[in-house]
Structure formats: structure tokens, C-alpha cells
Amino acid sequence: MSAADYPSNPQRAAPRPVVIYTDGGCIGNPGPGGWSAILQYGEHTKELSGRLRDTTNNRMELRAAIEALEALTRPCVVELHTDSTYLRDGITKWVHGWQRNGWRTAAKKPVKNQDLWQRLLAAVAYHEAGGAVHWKWVKGHAGHDLNERADVLANEAARSVSEADPSDAPEPPDTPSLWASANPG
Asked: Is 99 among the domain residues?
């Protein structure tokens, strides 16, 4: 962080956040899917997307947030926008209860997508160690430019899935994630 990231007064202001818009979806549910993330930091913008065979909409929503957070190579203050209430409510309301219950829902059923929830928690913890992650819900298909762009990218990715693309089989919980080399700012 440089001195330019702070105002000239002696009290330090919070650093500006990395603003992220994510989306995920699939053709059929389950079916071929795509995810996308748009990362903005100041004047810099980076678009990410990916695709997988045999997945669900919720897995693609989770993967979009995970891939975006893992693309940042240092802890950041993040403002993550999603049109998925499943993602937003899961990370802000449900996940810690699931952990306390041994990854079981209130109905004592196994939590769906546990592998991705655990990976998301690790990515969030990484950023909270030196920043914070703020979760924002945005209404989908309501004219928010970056949300609309994320939707286009996720749909393009889903439509481009081929038999050569990997299936979205859950990863074992202890599989380490690979961190991308994107570095905002």
C-alpha cells in the first residue's frame, strides 16, 4: 500500500476496496456451467471466467466468489457483489452454524457443496487476516452494469463447455487451492 492510498491528514483512512461482481449459472440444473468475476481496483479492471461440465447453478455461484478471492495475491479489503442469495446468505448467516453442527443442516442433513463452502471460508479468512470481505446483494437483471457483464461472461462460459472440460466433481476438503497471479493496484 502506498502513501497515495491514504488522504494527507494524519489519521489513516481505510484503504479503498477491491470491488468484485460475480455470477454463476448453468444450462439445465445440473448441466454445463460457467462462472465469472469482475475485479476492479481503482482504474484497473480484470475479468475472470471458467466453465465445467455436470455442475449446478449454486456450485457455479460459489466458484465465482472463490476464484475471485483466490485471484488476489495479498489480503485485501473486498466488496463482493452477488445476485445469489444462496451465496450471500450461506456465507453471512448459515456457514458457521453448519461448521458447529459438523457440516450438517438444521434438519441434520449433510450440507450440499461442503467442499466449496470450505474453500470459500479459507479464501475469506485469508483476506480477513489483513483486510475484510463485505458481502453485497444486488438484484439480478436489474440494469447494474457490472452484474450484467458478469452474467454475460458466465453464460458465455456455460455455452462454451465441451466434453474436454472437467466435470465439477467435489474436491476432497484438504485439497489445496491454487492462487492466481492477479495483483490489483
From this structure: yes
Domain extent, residue 98, equals 15-159
Which residue's C-alpha cell is 451465496? 87
Task: Tell me, yes or no, whether 123 lies in a domain.
Answer: yes
3-state secondary structure of 133: strand
136 closest CA partner among 15, 25, 21? 21
CATH number of domain containing 99:
3.30.420.10
What is the residue-level pLDDT of the chain in tens, covering all 185 positions?
Answer: 443 443 444 455 567 899 999 999 999 999 999 999 999 999 999 999 999 999 999 999 999 999 999 999 999 999 999 999 999 999 999 999 999 999 999 999 999 999 999 999 999 999 999 889 999 999 888 888 999 999 999 999 999 999 888 888 665 444 344 333 334 44
Nearest CA to 96 out of 126, 121, 61 is that of 121
Domain presence at residue 174 = no
- pTM: predicted TM-score of the whole model, two decimal places: 0.84
Active site residues: 23-24, 61, 83, 141, 151
